[in-house]
Amino acid sequence: MPETTGYSIDDLLNHSEVKTISEAMSSETVTRRECIPQLCAVFSQAVTQLTENAQFTFDLDQEAIQKLPHIIHNPVQFVSGMDSPDNTILDQYRKPRNIGIVFSGGPAPGGHNVIAGLFDAAKKANPETRIYGFLKGPDGVIDDRHVELTKDTIDAYRNLGGFGMIKTGRSKIDTAKKMNQARETCKKLGLDALVVVGGDDSNTNAAFMAQEFFADGIQVIGVPKTIDGDVQVRDSAGHVLCAISFGFHSAARAFAQEVSNLCTDCSSDMKYWHICKVMGRSASHLALEVALQTHANITLIGEDLAEYIDVRRLETSGKSGETDFTAFGMTLRHMSRVICDAIVRRATAGKNCGVMVIPEGVLEFINEIQVFILKLNTIIAEYNSTHDTDFHGDFPILENKRDYLRKLAQRSRENKAFTIWNTRDDDLFNDLPDFFQEGLLLERDSHGNFQFSLVETDKVIMELVRDYLKILKEKGIYKMGIEKQEYIRTLEKVGLSPDHFGTVLFKNYDSGTYLLMKESVISLKTLKQTLVRSAVISEDDPIPPVIEKIYNQSVPQFKTQTHFYGYDGRGSMPTTFDSVYTYNLGWTVFSLIANGATGQMAAIYNLEKPFSQWIPAGLPIAPLMHLEERNGRLSLVMEKSLVDIRSPAFQVLKANREKWLFSMPGPDHYRIPAPIYLVDNVDDDRPITLMLNEIASRQQDK
After folding, report:
1. CA-CA distances (angstroms) from residue 198 to 116, 140, 246, 270?
2. Is 200 marked active-site?
3. pTM flag (> 0.90)
4. Of the listed 228, 235, 304, 578, which one is catalytic?
5. Domains in the chain, please, with CATH?
């Protein structure tokens, strides 16, 4: 018999309030789309012009000079305004143009506002200007797949996340054939300029297109995009020209929201260690910002690990007049012990829980891993060459491969001149989990390179941590602290004397707020032996149930939950900072185009300072490029920016590590970041990393 609902589903679906609630766009989203971000004052003037700033200089790479002659000497250009330009300037600025724009690489919050800013600036100068969006990334340029962008299209995506308006892709225009196809597309559409929105590789691509299209009169402008935050620009003297790429702040805040929720959960049920891996393969900027936003208990920064020096190992080798170069750089074994030490210390305060943040590329900063990769690459290549066969075919399983490496270590002991694989290498390698050993010994890619993307970073680290915690537990070092007052109440409840048992069970009974079971008590057997030896019970007596209960409470159960934050952050709504930043980047792009620039990257100088001091600028891409190994060969690319461990932002994290670990009784120092929403003033919503660096800069200037 059908259930009677008491209402008509058709009437419900047609109800005006239900229709409003069921709309794809929430009221918050509608409000977002209607918001017009703050605009730098210069853009309110009649026209803009470019002013060269000669104080900023770059060290030029010889390869860049040779391959990018038309744009290698581009200067830094600041955008300034003119209220009363002459007719010649006005006509040039306001002439109708055809401009193409393409997204390249992964999405980053704020990309739509780059298009919106470019569109608004271009239409203000001349309503006849046409903006074309190339679909699905660089392939759209190569294959001439485009759509003309209209006001209705633009308005539907203002201040929204993602790259949904025209989509994106990871192809590169990096061959002569692709370059010619792209050129033909631009000519067919009569483009005056092409705008490439992307990261370091994409801006590198933009520089090469600017060079190739120079004679055709087609301008190419880059825009710095990547949530990793590794597109930053400094001149040769260290002056900051572009403090951060767009999308970084939004992604970091999205990740911080999730990590903060786990901090709240952690302090509620006191049950898990939450292991939070955040995007950042080549740099740890996101991990640093998330740490500053949340005050997670442990945060690993890859660049910090790379700078580690084992002073004791250096001193030991120095006594023999030698230098142990293996003392430079953190090893996996030592890193796992640092993490274990923090976990053990929190456990002593009754906190067998916490939140740890690690960048996904942290293993790339472990010198030992890089050495392993280089050595194993050499060993495998030499074996294949010497035996005219395949290493992986001859040693199909892990144990076969390990046997071969052991023989090499034995050879090094017998022949000191043989150093490619020594006993220490073999010992460290065998400390690694089996699955990671297999990963390091996997077949290389077509260029002979190790495939880092196949490694589960968090799994590698936590396997080592678990193994060492087990050792510490067996040694009686890893124990849960028992709250003294709770212990007293528990024993008094069953009529036993807390003091009588306390001095027998605990090593700090007279001084601790949280009591620690003696290190010799590591099992029920050793517990009974301790009680019998102290004449608290006889050999024939059972352990009192309440004492057994207290003992069980002292045995830590290390439980973890792993989380990866990446795609959710790059698809988040943009923060006010990124919304305003990208909208002004769009206006900057048009100023560069209208004033004839090419091979420049749109940027905001003074981005780390209050909004009133922001200066739209064009930065030369070619001088930022250098030779770097990519895919097994040297390529001319734009350099990634790593976390500077001397920076104020990192130093603040370093100074607060002990406080945020909080291995003592009481509430943790977790910070709850604000949700992502649009505010009226961008100065109320900025990356903490930039704010700390800017505050320190002001202090230096005093």
Report:
1. 16, 15, 10, 42
2. no
3. yes
4. 228
5. 26-246+576-642 (3.40.50.450), 248-473+560-568+649-691 (3.40.50.460), 479-554 (no CATH)
